[in-house]
Specification:
alpha+beta, Alpha-D-Glucose-1,6-Bisphosphate, Chain A, domain 3, TATA-Binding Protein, 2 domains
Length: about 300
Amino acid sequence: MINGIPLEDFGGGHPDPNLVHAEHLAQLMFSDQSPDFGAASDGDGDRNMIVGNNIFVTPSDSLAIITANADLAPAYKGKVTGIARSMPTSQAPDKVAKKLGIDCYETPTGWKFFGNLMDADKVTLCGEESFGTGSNHIREKDGLWAVLFWLNILAVRQESVADIVQQHWQEYGRNYYSRHDYEAIETDKANQLMSALRDKVKTLATTQLGSLIVAYSDDFCYTDPVDNSISEQQGIRIGFTNGSRIIFRLSGTGTSGATLRIYYESYETDAAQLNQETQSALSELIKISLTVSDLQALTGRTKATVIT
């Protein structure tokens, strides 16, 4: 156990689990002394990070792998009615849902949308890219449950985390995924950037950006299938014919400005290309995003504040 004693100030550390804030765990898991399995949770136990010997499992892949292996956990065997993910979360869970013949819902960011679907018995499992995973046993994310679910999978399969992930990619393909945060941008400039993008995406469909062809581009709007409520301007999406996506969202507007989050996703099925370095695999999408948003000219930023 690391940092296992409850402290009001989290021992001076950050309460969220990821490779940056759980650096000590990450260093251990990517060292010669790595144990077979590692996990981190946040201060109140609702978020989770899954790590194996020399491998980090993205939250998107974690939801996909839990769904694909749900029958290995007795309480979920044959009981998964559907799954849901937030729109910026990678489409890895979608591939599993399609193969299983169950519904997969794409919702705005925010757990209340999952809650509606669970109350209506439309989904059993759900998750988001910001390290939240849950199921219909509770109307919140549950990091401790997610860790226990992974331990169920490992106990039954008797394989390493890396082997389980690699076999999953071989079967379903790999969704390379990353989020770039540009923090404390002047609010006016951030709003100007998003406004310009909203106008631009209206005419991007079928055009070519770099070597990619735009399949669709929009400002995500969600109609809740349970209460028919409508949520508009939930993030600007640019989707390409090869399954890649770029998503722009503003988060945390306030006195210190706004955080612009850009999400990148590239889908790969070639077995020889399943183990690329993530930022390298996403390099063309990153270039396209900077060009189409005119980010540097509008904000003066030349690089992201945080990359996860």
